[in-house]
Automatic annotation (TrEMBL):
MF (Gene Ontology): ATP hydrolysis activity
Stated name of the protein: CpaF family protein
Pfam families (UniProt xref): T2SSE (PF00437)
Organism: Anaerobutyricum hallii
Family, per entry: Belongs to the GSP E family.
Residue ranges the record marks as coiled coil: none
Chain ranges of the Bacterial type II secretion system protein E domain: 95-375
Gene3D superfamilies: 3.30.450.380, P-loop containing nucleotide triphosphate hydrolases
Amino acid sequence: MSILKDKFITNRTEKENINKKIKETHVQPTEQEQNTAQDIIRKVSEQYAEELISKDISDISNQIASTVREYCNQLDLTYEEQKRIEKTVLSTVLGHGPIEPLLQDNDVSEIVVQKYDNIVYEKDGIIHKSEVSFVDENHLRTIINRIVQKAGRQINIMTPIVDARLEDGSRVNATIPPVSPDGATLTIRKFNNKALSGNDYLALGSLNRPMLYFLNACVRGRISIFVSGGTGTGKTTLLNMLSAYVPSNELIITIEDTCELKLQQPNVRRMEVRSSTSSDMLTVDQKILVRNALRQRPDRIILGETRDGSIVDLISAMSSGHDGSISTIHANDPENMCNVRIPILYSMNKDVNFSEKSIAMQISEAIQVIVQIKRFPDGSRKISQISCVEGLDENDKVKVVDIFRYDKNKKGFIATGYVPRSIIEKIRSQNIPFQESIFEVKRGEENA
């Protein structure tokens, strides 16, 4: 009798340990488990298709969980296999539908639902097409509302566009008809809890040591910097890395659409743009926050992304006591940023009216370094140029000179040989030692 009792206790203990392990960790199913789970997901989705669309998930969760267990009990599975499959199925059916596994996968950085039956995602820098899809348009809309409700938002005919930040920091954008006439869309840019360091960038091959040395010195030496690049190139991640070099005794104000920066300095005040969701709610845009920040005595302003007329106030701040401020911007290259993109943003500020030459002069006085980042076909992200602003040329355009660049033919980073004297002088004026040897052209790079 004691042998049977001991065996019962052992089995119960093993099951408790398995339950605890599966509850506390992310289940990465084997190929066989995933195939079994997908079969059960299909059956459950068909069986509860109407309820999944029309009812609150909490009202049917127990019933669905019971059905999933029944399906699993019919299969020849070990206890652990059954529990792993149950968790995989329930997280999909009761969580966020077919994108639940993508949300749980730490290597997936972005999920794009182009239509209910067309899902793509970015993993390790590469875009992949998902083999799964939502049941139909209504299923997708149900999941969208389930997601945005966590941020206190709702999507409907009155508010067909929702831009929100989830509790974990992930950014969500969703649309429904008539804004997106072909059906609802959903984009989730997942929040990365791990801030990349300069050494991480070196390990990833995104820059080399002389470039990192230069950028480190520029931030500590209060050089005003713009990070430029296209969508999804990693501008905010790079901005976060650069911001880590700001001395801890400085007063910093960050301004973002959705708070993503993870600064560790003790004196950081975070500001976030707020959109109006009702007629009696004040819209707080970038321009308001930048102007307000100037009244709060910051040593530096770090603007997550410059994308409207707030550029006028930021440029003014950079050239009048808030040097060392940093921001990102959408632009194809440093020259395009200075002579095309920023003038366009100036025109969006209806409170001012500057001539082209005046705008160019303001840019040349405020911005000193531009860091261009690009995403390459293999999914890697590299700093393609580090450039400096050297006044105006003979045509009154902002003169931009490359200091470092990536040579795609040689697949390596090179120094151009240009020595930015004014930047070096300013860095040294902050009592920061600086080695000019980083600008030397290496043998074999002369004609690169």
